[in-house]
Amino acid sequence: MPIAEIYGGISAFKAMMDSAKALKDITDGTARNAAIIELQEKILSAQSAQTALVERVRELEEEVRSFKTWEAEKQRYQLEKLPPGVIVRTLKADMARGEPVHHICENCYQHGEASPLNATEEVNGVYHLSCNRCKAKMQVGHFVAPAIILSQGVEDYDPFKNY
Question: Residue 131 in contact with residue 117, Cβ under 8 Å?
């Protein structure tokens, strides 16, 4: 699309130059005024096209800057598999720059975002991670049955008795 806009802008400037050259040969006042108005319209059109091109270049430069920033940020994280098979990205300790080591959402990472995962408190070896951006929720860890502490021996355990 930008190539077509560039050619369109060049064509508009060429048409303006042709109109300006033709203007010097016009002796009739009415025809000259009509040619001047046409030239002014072409100038305004060319200025509008140039403004649109300048804005598009600015947008593309911002996009390139964003890609470069994300490429540098991506290098700070490594792929990790948490039990029972949850894939996340984890901040490399040597790249932390004062940040605590944390996990980010793999889904968001694939879409160019570093969205930190929030963890719940671990209960019986299991905790949950959630992403505020894409709303993903993951159960992580291995369940560990709670130990039953009895004042009596294990063989005296009665599941129906209130201890």
Answer: yes
